Amino acid sequence: MKSELYRFQERGIDFLRTRGRALLADEMGLGKTIQAIEASKGLNRVLIIAPKTIHRNWELELSEWNPGVPVMRIKGDRDRKLKIISEFEKGYLIINYEICRLTEQDNPY
């Protein structure tokens, strides 16, 4: 069930939206995921890099806070992962840190 945002979360969302790049370093449990989702609304493509253990949590939060937007998790061998990344056009793509280790030449991001 989607709840209301706190004032500090609204400030965090504004902070993220008004900068080209930003780091949201709130303490654990203060709603960084929700702030990131809210700040990313309206963007065509969003890349989420997170440990594999929380990918499902991201999917659940995205379905609650931004329903109807496509969400993809990458699975498969190296070539399949690279193919998915290169063809990704809309929505949220959730990857783990391991994928970031691909060579710069292979990684379109």
UniProtKB/TrEMBL annotation:
Domain SNF2 N-terminal: 8-99
GO terms assigned for molecular function: ATP binding
InterPro entries referenced in this protein's UniProt entry, alphabetically: P-loop_NTPase, SNF2-like_sf, SNF2_N, SNF2_RAD54_helicase_repair
SUPFAM superfamilies found in the cross-reference section: P-loop containing nucleoside triphosphate hydrolases
Protein name: SNF2 N-terminal domain-containing protein
Pfam families with a match to the protein in the record: SNF2-rel_dom (PF00176)
